[in-house]
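Quick question, first post here. What does this chain look like in 3D?
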Amino acid sequence: MAIVTLLLLVPHTVMGESNTRDGSVVATAISITTSVDEVESSLEYEIEFGELSANMSYNYQIWFTRVDPDFVHERIQNSFTAEDNVHTISSSWSPPQDGPWTIHAELLNDYGAAIDSNTGLFDWGDLWNNSDSVQLNISPEPELTHYDLFENESLRENVSVTFDFANYESGADYKLRWKLYRGIGINDQEFIVGEGPSSWYSRSVAFSSLQNYWENNTNFTIATWLYRVDNIGDQDVLVEIDSKNWTFAIGKGPEIIIAPIVQGCMNPNANNYNPQATVDDGSCKFDDTDGDGVYDYLEIEGCMDENATNYNLEATDDDGSCEYSDQDGDGVFDHLEVEGCMDKNATNYDLNATDDDDSCEYADQDGDGVFDHLEVEGCTDENALNYDSESTDDDGSCEYPPLLRAEIVSNQTTGEGPLSIQFSANISGGVANYEIEWVFGDGEISNLKNPTHVFAPGVYNVALQVRDSRNSTAMDSIQIVVEEPEIVEELSGYISHSAQLEPITLGMAGALEFTAIITGGVAPYTFAWDFGDGNTADGDIVLHEYSEFKTYAVKIRISDSENREIEYDLDVEIIERDDPLTNATSDIVDGGEISDLGIYVTSASAAGLLLIFGLFGRKRRENFLDAERRMSLGGPSIWDD
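> Answer (accepted):
Ran it through. Tokens below.
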């Protein structure tokens, strides 16, 4: 069982002090306090941001790194609005692995530009075995300087090389790759074969799998690289962490001599770079043209002014790209603002101030609480018509309004319920604005000037009260009488039709006269006929001709003036007659009504009669039929005139 010791048992505070690139030390406004909670196995930390401006918004970020300073295990980003010049963030965090840790804190302005930063160190768990950086290994088995693969078959089948790494950061993503070169080293040598980058933590390659590439009495170099995979934006970027080379010979020894190790500078950015070197001896020298302590190949151009919104903490050469904030839009950059009294009317006016700090002081000679430069003469009486709310000194010019009056105006006071009445408040005199209250006598009220109210049947006293801005009141009232509504009989009726008639129009099969009888509802009525053959008509009595001998579905929809509706339907059959009658007859019943009317005509005079039936009312049709009966007894015809 592994024993893990939690160190840093007492609080550790790092006060705000950070190093600049030239090695000097500047005071910062950030302090970091850390302590280990052994019970909860967590790190307790407190970040105090100082020297803040009250009511200003700030952003901050806190992140944790271990041995690899470029791999962030946890990052917290947030913002706050400072209530005073200090703001404290307190929280806890549990490191995922043992080792020496660094907590970073950075304060940024509302535009994301860095204002200040600081770091603190703490230890966690077993430091003895967990303080080394990531290490890449090449392990040949067996490890020899030369391998006689062409003469020794057993050796050829049992040689392998393994690539692996240790001391990696928990949560980081790594990739391995390897390459085989012909020659000593990898610079300017012939690449033969390789693999990766791939997500291996360990990779073994058998020499037997490379037998097609071996050449006897030849030097070879196997190189391997370890990369950390960083996600930048939406892309994975490979960052080289470590690399190793191993040179060996294929062939018998000692004829094949491994070239001696060449020490020298292996950094291609150095001015004394030695491409033949196989071991870096630390002798590299680098140019620093501008003498700022940053080597030329490490220079980063950007804005270096901490007051700028695009300040680049990583920049080493200022490229003149700095941009500055002007939050109040007064043309003065925020870091150049000078606070003071900017009002020329104040006794302590500051000509150099760019931001008013509310420190202005003013004279008040008459002691009325209004500064001299703000005094305004006019009427100060709120009850006066010409009251001037801006006036501070009364000049005796006040004028007063006539008496407040209120009158109720309505479009009606009686009617059937429910009764909707439009009221209007006729207001004169007083001082606007007016407060209006209507009491309708049925428990309802309104504050509108022209309300509409619906009353149920009954008697109501409607009252109006008006109050003006001087608190004067005026009242009026009227009586509303609402009667019970008239009861309307339910809409009902029926329809009937005549016997089949000879058609008026040539080529038609037959005709029928339809009658709709309606009771109840509220007149006038509307009638909508559908004769079942695609034709329609309106009216309570209609004559319709059909073109074919068959059965038709007749429908009618009847509506009254209040949109009540009823519908009726019946089927009628038009049949072909072999021996039509030549005279029209009808039976007359009491009351002068025609019942069971049957008319079959073939003469031109009868066709005219049918037309008259359709054009005139029932009474005239009776007169015509009576005249035709007299003609059949020898009397004159209506068509003789």
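The chain has four domains: 12-124, 135-259, 405-483, 492-632.
Residues 346 and 361 are 5 Å apart (CA to CA).
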